[in-house]
Specification:
globular
Length: about 80
């Protein structure tokens, strides 16, 4: 996975932890998570063979309640 994608995923995890502890309001959290999701989608469009990035994008989508979008990405990551 490209280093920048790894950094985005790490940032997303940090953001989630901060949101869980009330350090980030819901609207800001959703906005930033949408941005991270979009950037991961772009990274995967350039190189779709990154299983880790696919898995992480699926996780982020699932966390946003987008289970139907997450499931095929999880499956693709396992191939």
């Amino acid at each position: 996975m490209p280093e920048s994608a790894t950094t985005m995923v790490d940032d997303a995890h940090t953001l989630r932890i901060r949101a869980d502890f009330g350090k980030v309001d819901g609207a800001t959290y959703r906005m930033l998570m949408d941005a991270v999701t979009a950037k991961l989608r772009d990274a995967l469009a350039r190189d779709p063979q990154h299983g880790t990035a696919l898995n992480n994008l699926a996780y982020l989508l699932e966390d946003q309640g987008k289970d139907t979008e997450a499931e095929p990405l999880y499956r693709q990551a396992l191939e």
